[in-house]
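This section describes the prediction task in plain terms. A model, or a person checking by hand, is given the sequence of a single protein chain and must write out its three-dimensional structure as a string of tokens. No templates, partner chains or ligands are provided. The sample shown here is typical of the held-out split.
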Amino acid sequence: MSNQQTVIFLDGNHLSIDQVTAIARCGAKIQLTPEAAEQVRRSRSLVDRMVRERRVVYGITTGFGKFSDVVIPDADIHQLQENLIVSHACAMGEPYPAEVVRAIMALRINALAKGYSGIREETLQLLVEMCNRGVHPIIPQQGSLGASGDLAPLAHMVLVMLGKGEAEYQGKRLSGAEALQAAGLEPIRLEAKEGLALINGTQAMTALLAIALHDARILMESAEVIAAMTVEALRGIPKAFDPQLHLTRPHPGQQESARRLLAHLHGSERTTAPGELRVQDAYSLRCIPQVHGATRDALEYVWTAVTRECNSVTDNPILFSDTGEVISGGNFHGQPMALAADFLAIAIAELANISERRTERLVNPQLSGLPGFLTEHGGLHSGFMITQYAAASIVSENKVLCHPASVDSIPSSANQEDHVSMGTTAARKLRTVVANTAKVLAIEYLAAAQAIEFGSGRLGEGTQRAYELIRREIPRLTEDREMHVDMAKAEELIRSGVLVW
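The expected answer:
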């Protein structure tokens, strides 16, 4: 992962999800490429020409939304842009954490760097410097319909550029003007098109998705080795992961999950052959490649879609400086991200669903052949009894959160904007589902490590490593203790990525 000295060059075309995460979480710096700066200047010259020629162009010389037919006099163009920001800053609720705000800023900079939006270079550079110097606008989480983009959240970002609103700087919540001054920056006055260029885009939902994807990929790989530990603890049958079986149903994710399970179990003396203890395992063991693999394929699809969106122009109208054309369209519509967020939430929730079922098999003596709730003194001690309750509660919460937001729409702007994506709602729910899934996997990780200690024989190459990692942080449960402490430590281990190899 990048650190604070890393500089990521933005040209509008090559920003990766890992780079977004480095900017968001590790303080990586941003710099525009010379080519991007030139394209921004060319796009701006087209706006200036249209203003001089008094052309009627949406958002430049007209009002917005339902007011697109209202032509604005030249003398009021500056006020039009500031009014847009002030009036649209209508988000509510708890603010986004700094990592999400930084991702939003980076993504908006990258979209504007493509040079189709008509912003001035100095205005864009202020946003770059705010990100680099740690001026993080306070952006409330609620209030975006996901079309026309993320208007309300992005307006709160731009307020600070005007010396308005609020921002966090060096751990303190300040007014926008105070935060800029403390960072050695000055507010700007918006020119024609700039307010619209800054707020008309999908960057809030895309920021949430990019960070969630980074975390989801860690959960995917962690789930694989944790599941392999459970297979060993229950003396499962790895023949179900045989490559020739999975070649007959050639889904790439399924094949990869089966391959990784076998790699983690390589050398294990804890597994069994068909018929040795049982003819076949329950679905939560036997079907790990099919379930995990489907999530892998979903991750791959969403990763591709979000990478595309990270490098897209998502405002309106779009200016083509080569031809002088200005085209009004709907690139701000968040439907591609809304569907991706809902799809990924469902896919990641399935990692938690099957994990909780494996935990139940570990703690239930009728299914495991192990001491009830993995304690040697059942009755006096409850052991892992209530950890499974917690997992069941969290997976049920995920099921509620996985109701798709993208199937909803509600008309706005006097029915001019009569279909919206709800993509930001979908992405916000996704963030919670990913966090919940880490908790459920942490519970299985703890239970699998405990269950392994009731058996004997060499562990597999991957499972031995995972077992050693958890035992460095969390000792075996020999008597009842505050399990939430262990659960939190196991969750942090998973989220740190130490189980990804």
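For orientation: The longest strand covers residues 7-10.
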